[in-house]
């Protein structure tokens, strides 16, 4: 893959947010332009050859959060995931009257059998899974009904913990409702390219889709930004401007559902509930490592402050064709993102007022923005207890290995 050197850099404390990178070539040939090995930063473009992409794939888990998506679409997504990545399907699909999870599990099993691959599958509402997180030190993840709470963020948290237990050094996320398997491949290669080029153990890569096409009056319109992203990015950039003293448009991926990070970073940050998860990551990173003096900041992580956090943003070539879930869904997502920014102690009064004015004028539901639910970082978990209780109690957790071998409760 050949992609641009990120030209613009915003620095806030130990956090560097790079401007948008563009993909020049999906496949850039065999050898780096400047010799046999080593990273291939040119002056304006970076070249990451297949061998180097693969060296990251082999160490990466790809999480597919799924809730009642069409099976055929999910199967396409799985086929787009590079061979060496470990697939982790975390499903919150209905089990009655039809057991959709059983169908998804079977699809993953067939996918692994035919392609000689490995995967983990688990159902988010498995009581044994909840017990494991409770016992390992994260009872807040479990609702009053005794199972892990509903939500995409919760599913991602669970799957990230599984990726850590499986020994993967990187974790990436791709939605299950994507109609174009080739775009999944491109997202994951972008993750791998930037994670290969990263200069720190604490790096994140966020995808900005080329476009989100929709039929309008009988023709396909390639819309650049979704409605949620537009407002989230605007207010995150206002917050950045407040922190740095300079106006900016650096943040273009506030809602990036498709993103990846090093496990070292994933373990240290908080996951938020539902669709707040992606903007919350940025806010949480700024609060923890942005050098901002906040009453809530309890301890400084010297390692991260010293090495720094890098946030890469990449604009892909493929458009993102996915399931359209309607206006209410978009509004819910927008409110979750805006709540995250609104309730951050880093957000100044003027930005809070601008958010409130936006909510009142642009959203159907203009009621108060409730604070977002978030969970302690994964590093607070007792990993031994988690693994032990999962193996014993999580009835839906399964490791599927080539050739067609599957083991209940196993992770490695
Ligand atoms: N495990 C699990 N649990 N998965 C879930 C849950 C849940 O409770 N809710 C949704 N998902 C899965 C969906 O099945 C899908 O694969 C993925 O999470 C994204 O959910 P969608 O409902 O399809 O979201 P979207 O496509 O409207 O929004 C996506 O793009 C936004 C950026 O525009 C998401 O990735 C958002 O998180 C992102 O901000």
Can you put this structure into words, describing what you see?
The protein has 412 residues and is of the alpha/beta class. 38% of the residues lie in helices and 19% in strands. It is built from 13 helices and 15 strands. The strands form two sheets. Strands 1, 2, 3, 4, 5, 6, 7, 8, 9, 12, 13, 14 and 15 form a 13-stranded mixed sheet that branches. A two-stranded antiparallel ribbon has the order 10-11. A hairpin with a 2-residue loop joins strand 10 and strand 11. Helix 2 runs parallel beside helix 3 and helix 2 packs parallel to helix 6. The longest helix is centred in the middle third of the chain and has 18 residues. It is globular and about 55 Å long. It starts with a strand and ends with a strand. The mean pLDDT is 92. The structure holds guanosine-5'-diphosphate-alpha-D-mannose. The site of guanosine-5'-diphosphate-alpha-D-mannose has 27 residues, from strand 5, strand 6, helix 5, helix 7 and helix 11.
Briefly say what this structure is:
The protein has helices spanning 50-57, 71-80, 100-115, 127-135, 152-165, 181-197, 227-244, 263-266, 277-289, 302-307, 327-342, 349-362, 383-393, and strands at 2-4, 9-12, 15-25, 45-47, 60-66, 86-91, 119-123, 170-173, 202-208, 212-216, 219-223, 259-262, 309-315, 398-401, 405-408. It is an alpha/beta fold. Helix 4 runs antiparallel to helix 13 (383-393) and helix 11 packs antiparallel against helix 12.
């Amino acid at each position: 893959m050949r992609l641009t050197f990120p030209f613009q850099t915003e620095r806030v404390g130990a956090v560097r947010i790079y401007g948008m990178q563009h993909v020049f070539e999906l496949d850039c040939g065999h050898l780096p332009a400047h010799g046999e090995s080593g990273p291939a930063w040119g002056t304006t473009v970076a070249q990451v050859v297949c061998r180097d992409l693969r060296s990251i794939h082999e160490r990466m888990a790809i999480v597919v959060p799924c809730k009642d998506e069409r099976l055929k679409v999910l199967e396409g997504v799985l086929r787009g995931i590079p061979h060496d990545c470990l697939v982790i399907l975390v499903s919150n699909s209905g089990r009655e009257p039809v057991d959709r999870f059983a169908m998804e599990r079977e699809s993953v099993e067939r996918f692994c059998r035919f392609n000689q691959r490995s995967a983990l599958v688990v159902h988010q509402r498995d009581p044994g899974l909840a017990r494991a997180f409770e016992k390992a030190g994260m009872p807040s993840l479990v609702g009053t009904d005794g199972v892990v709470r509903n939500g995409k963020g919760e599913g991602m948290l669970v799957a990230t913990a599984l990726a850590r237990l499986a020994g993967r050094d990187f974790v990436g996320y791709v939605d299950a409702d994507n109609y174009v398997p080739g775009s999944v491949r491109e997202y994951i290669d972008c993750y791998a390219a930037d994670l290969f080029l990263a200069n720190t153990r604490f790096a994140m890569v966020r995808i900005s889709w080329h476009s989100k096409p929709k039929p309008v009056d009988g023709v396909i319109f390639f819309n650049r930004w979704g409605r949620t992203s537009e407002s989230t990015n605007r207010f995150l950039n206002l917050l950045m401007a407040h922190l740095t003293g300079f106006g900016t448009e650096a943040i273009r991926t506030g809602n990036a559902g498709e993103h990846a990070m090093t496990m070292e970073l994933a373990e240290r940050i908080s996951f938020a509930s539902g669709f707040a998860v992606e903007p919350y990551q940025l806010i949480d990173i700024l609060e923890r490592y942005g050098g901002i003096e906040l009453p809530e900041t309890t301890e400084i992580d010297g390692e991260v402050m010293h090495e720094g956090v890098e946030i890469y943003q990449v604009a892909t070539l493929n458009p993102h064709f996915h399931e359209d879930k309607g206006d209410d869904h978009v509004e819910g997502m927008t409110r979750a993102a805006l709540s995250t920014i609104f309730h951050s102690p880093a957000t100044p009064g003027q930005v809070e007022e601008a958010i409130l004015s936006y909510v009142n004028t642009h959203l159907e539901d203009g009621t108060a923005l409730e604070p977002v639910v978030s969970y302690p970082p994964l590093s607070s978990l007792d990993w031994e207890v988690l693994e032990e209780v999962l193996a014993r109690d999580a009835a839906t957790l399964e490791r599927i290995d080539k050739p067609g071998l599957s083991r209940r409760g196993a992770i490695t």
